């Protein structure tokens, strides 16, 4: 018994020890022919009919003085194109399971109104509908990801939506589409079958939803038998592994293109804390919740591997990001929050997790794109700013469709009040032109960290670096100081005969490029 206790003690102590040599973390990055491609869709976004996401965010209407293309703000189109936004999920979220797509087509003055039950009880006039969204995706060069209504809709309604958007031949729905001004179908690839079926999508059990899913998936043909649609099941709430198990067990693999997972970084659902006025305690516990993503992806993957060892089904983390109390004085149902260096660190570390699990994680959607939760864009009437999270996603866009370079290291620890987190997060890839990108995050709020990377085998010689950091963790871009946090040249490294010696400041995100 005593021996067993001693062994447990030693394992615990060893797992807490920083194995870095002389305070330097040795990171190994390898070329590996078998490594997966990092699917660009990991860098996806989410736009729900919620608060000022669509109305007052993306969409101002074509009579607005704010420069727009068919009602969509030109400044947002430009910023998202620069971000290389690969896909956009719409119209929810919880809203999706109350949304009847036929309310949002045809002449705008004739569209019926509905009340947005989930988000602030506002009256939705349906002026932004299917055509508006899908045409906007074309402008953005982004794949649309439509979230279908299972909670309060019907199989026929969802099957009709697919026919309306995707069928090029003659049919009732394609005729209706043509009558509404769109001849060619949009060919929407990604289809969600409900959202959060365990909660706002209908409070279903996993077993019940699995059956519902099978029924919906059966009738959601792409109507041309090209196999062109990816059906995505509503996935688990964070660590609800039973949900994943039941769905993988009960849904045939050939009916399942993707399985979702939702996880928000929240300190405490009862006391979420302010987005800007937070202490190190608030920072540490937000990061603790965010970094749980590593465990979630690993454990959900292990369950999926059991039923799908060939990894045919994609894991789709179709809602992730930080969730704080709404900004004071704003509508509690609108989920508007500011975005600080904390959010930049969180985004960098989460995206590293997705990159490193690219064999299974093939899409993710940050919640949400404009004016809601961990937004990349904030607007105030005619003004628009990009957030620190925007800059991280733009910097990391170099990983889109690049080949993962597996990375390994023993992270030093970031200690706060006796609790610990890994201080360093990293991922690396090689793009189709042979350029290597290594993204590094120092999660530690107080201490810089030293890292050493041997790059001799990577086939590149000259490195440059970019950093996102600021004087304070609480710093953010405001409408008065929109460029307080922007990427700058990173000089904190030396290339000593193929060994990069890097000193990364506290709470900062760095991307190194080797050519
Ligand atoms: O992103 C906000 C909400 O969070 C979504 O509507 C819902 O799916 C989740 O609970």
UniProtKB/TrEMBL annotation:
Pfam families in UniProt: Alpha-L-AF_C, ASD1_dom
GO BP annotations, alphabetical order: L-arabinose metabolic process; polysaccharide catabolic process
Source organism superkingdom: Bacteria
Leader sequence residues: 1-20
EC number: 3.2.1.55
Domain Alpha-L-arabinofuranosidase C-terminal: 318-508
Catalysed transformations (reactions): Hydrolysis of terminal non-reducing alpha-L-arabinofuranoside residues in alpha-L-arabinosides
Single annotated GO MF: alpha-L-arabinofuranosidase activity
Keywords from the named record: Carbohydrate metabolism, Glycosidase, Hydrolase, Signal
Assembly and binders: Homohexamer; trimer of dimers.
Family named by the database record: Belongs to the glycosyl hydrolase 51 family.
Name of this chain's protein: non-reducing end alpha-L-arabinofuranosidase
Phylogenetic classification of the source organism: Bacteria, Pseudomonadati, Bacteroidota, Flavobacteriia, Flavobacteriales
């Amino acid at each position: 018994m005593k021996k067993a206790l001693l062994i447990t003690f030693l394992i615990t102590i060893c797992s807490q020890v920083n194995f870095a040599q002389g305070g330097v973390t040795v990171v190994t990055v390898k070329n590996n022919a078998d490594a997966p491609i990092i699917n660009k869709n990991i860098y996806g976004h989410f736009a729900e009919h919620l608060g000022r996401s669509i109305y007052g965010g993306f969409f101002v209407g074509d009579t607005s003085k704010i420069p727009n293309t068919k009602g969509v703000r030109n400044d947002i189109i430009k910023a998202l194109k620069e971000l290389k936004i690969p896909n956009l999920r719409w119209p929810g979220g919880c809203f999706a399971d109350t949304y009847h797509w036929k309310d949002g087509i045809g002449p705008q003055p004739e569209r019926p109104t509905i009340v947005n039950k989930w988000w602030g009880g506002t009256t939705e006039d349906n002026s932004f509908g299917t055509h508006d969204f899908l045409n906007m995706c074309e402008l953005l060069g982004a794949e649309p990801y439509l979230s279908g209504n299972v909670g309060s809709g019907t199989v026929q309604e969802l099957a009709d939506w697919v026919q309306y958007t995707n069928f090029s031949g003659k049919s009732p729905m394609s005729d209706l589409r043509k009558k509404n001004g769109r001849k060619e179908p949009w060919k929407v690839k990604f289809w969600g079958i409900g959202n959060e079926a365990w909660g706002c999508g209908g409070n279903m059990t996993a077993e019940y939803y699995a059956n519902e899913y099978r029924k919906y998936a059966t009738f959601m043909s792409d109507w041309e038998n090209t196999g062109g649609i990816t059906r995505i099941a509503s996935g688990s709430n964070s660590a609800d592994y039973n949900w994943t198990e039941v769905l993988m067990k009960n849904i045939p693999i050939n009916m399942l293109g993707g399985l979702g997972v939702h996880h928000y970084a929240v300190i405490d659902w009862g006391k979420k804390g302010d987005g800007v006025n937070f202490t190190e305690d608030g920072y540490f516990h937000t990061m603790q919740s965010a970094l749980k993503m590593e465990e979630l992806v690993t454990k959900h993957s292990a369950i999926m591997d059991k039923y799908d060892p060939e990894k045919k089904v994609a894991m789709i983390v179709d809602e992730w990001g930080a969730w704080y109390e709404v900004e004071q004085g704003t509508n509690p149902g609108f989920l508007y929050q500011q975005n600080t260096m904390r959010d930049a660190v969180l985004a960098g570390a989460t995206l590293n997790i997705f990159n490193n699990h690219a064999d299974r994680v093939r899409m993710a959607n940050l919640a949400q794109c404009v004016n809601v939760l961990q937004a990349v864009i904030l607007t105030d009437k005619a003004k628009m700013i990009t957030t620190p999270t925007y800059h991280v996603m733009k910097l990391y866009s170099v990983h889109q469709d690049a080949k993962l370079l597996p990375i390994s290291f023993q992270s030093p620890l970031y200690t706060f009040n006796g609790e610990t987190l890994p201080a360093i997060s990293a991922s690396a890839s090689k793009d189709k032109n042979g350029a290597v990108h290594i993204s590094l995050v120092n999660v530690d709020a107080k201490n810089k960290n030293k890292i050493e990377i041997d790059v001799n085998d990577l086939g590149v010689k000259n490195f440059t670096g970019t950093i996102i950091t600021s004087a304070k963790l609480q710093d953010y871009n405001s409408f008065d100081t929109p460029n307080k946090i922007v990427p700058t040249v990173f000089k904190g490294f030396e290339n000593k005969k193929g060994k990069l010696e890097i000193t990364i400041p506290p709470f900062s995100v760095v991307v190194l490029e080797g050519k």
